[in-house]
Amino acid sequence: MNGEPVHGELVRNELVHGLLDAAVARTPDAPAVRDATGMWTYRELDAYSRAFAHWLRARGAGRGDRLVLQLPTNRRLAAMFYGASRCGVIFVPLNPAMKTFHLRQVVGNADPKLLIGDGTTAPRLRELSGTVHLADTVWDDVEELRAQGAPFEAEPVRPDEVVTLIYTSGSTAAPKAVTCPHTQVTFASRALTQALGYRADDVVLCRFPMSWDYGLYKVLMTCIAGSEIVLADGESDLVLLRRMRETGATVVPVVPSFASMIVSLARRDGTDLPPVRMFTNTGAALPQATTDALRELFPGVRVVRQYGQTEAKRITVMPPEEDRERPGAVGLPLPGTRVLILDDEGRELPAGETGEIVAVGPHVMPGYWNSPEISAKAFRTAPGTGEPCLHTGDYGSLDADGYLYFEGRRDDMFKRKGFRMSTLEIEGAAMDIPGVRAAAALAPTEEHDLALFVESDLAPAAVLKGLAQRLEPAKVPAICRCLTEFPLTQHGKNARQELALLLRGSGN
């Protein structure tokens, strides 16, 4: 990060706002971003980003300063992202649902120069950090600056400078901020756009907030492809299928809970479904029944499996044209990257053997913000080459053709009755039982034996009987709880912490 700023076309290509500049140069009047209130072209998105950059500069924010925003994901937030990039200001988006307990930790860690909230989030932010700018007031200023049309000359930002901090959910510990420089972010965005085959005529409906990398990177990937993104975070579940139809959505990123909801809505509506050509999945594996239903309801659709962590954005993607091949595989490494499988001594394992998944390449981030000790455990250098690599803490194997098979996190693996097993294996077996809509297994602890939660109208005994038909006796849980609705995290994943509390509260 030291040294003189670098200039030139090559550098602009590695900067986040350079992606927008390139899109404006190609197709200035093409639709860029849409939300519930309207649509902007690339030219309009660019103008708003420059006006917001003026606003930041007028308040003394510059290179390396952190900007914390706890706002809904909409067109304004996308413009703020690009505008912060133009100033060298580090964009720190937080989920509006983040509570004070984690918010206090995050604000203390980020030490922001400026904070922006809305009517709901600003009071919580003020309790922690004094002055907070209200989003509506900020936007009034931005509209005025845009109307004035004053040109904005971007700061001479270096590609290795940080563009955003993405905080993990904090579901099991204090939230950590993944430090994301321009170079890694733009490389990962381009590689993922290429791997998934985004097209200029695509309309990508994104249900996820920009506080999660799954949502944030969609803004960049559509910009690279010159396609349109529909930001649907916060819109009612009941209108989402209609929204997909109205906007002509062709690509829809999903997690299992969202995919199941689409299936339910599509079965209810029956006809006139949107022209979706691809569903992309991450966060957790889709149950096979959900995948089959998506293919049945949306003829010809690709359901693409992926694997990744925010610390390297995405690690593998199943080629879309191979979405029905190699069941269980989560894809090939991103273009320009590698995956290693290492044993406990750091030695590379051959195809077919299970070990830790290690990502190698220019998409690997440099570490966690202000957390050198934690960073040193995960972010290292590859043996032999010295390339940056991420020790994921996940376990899996590669086949002879280089396809990755994910088997679970270190925390998911455990021994019971002399057998090594994974919570993922037990959850997969539970999801195979007709009538089970969601499943989460909790590994044994000193407080409880192996436990399973399912979302189902079945009785616990029926679920356990179904598991006994699918698993070895040692892998059948001792405890089963059936819920009518599953608690989920802000990102739509199973809220394991809440399930553990339910188990504790029930006295097992």
UniProtKB/TrEMBL annotation:
Gene3D superfamilies: 3.30.300.30, N-terminal domain of ligase-like. This is AMP-binding protein. Pfam families: AMP-binding (PF00501). Keywords: Plasmid. SUPFAM superfamilies: Acetyl-CoA synthetase-like (SSF56801). It comes from Streptomyces yangpuensis. InterPro entries: AMP-bd_C_sf, AMP-dep_synth/lig_dom, ANL_N_sf, ATP-dep_AMP-bd_enzyme. Residues 21-369 form the AMP-dependent synthetase/ligase domain. The keyword Secreted does not apply.
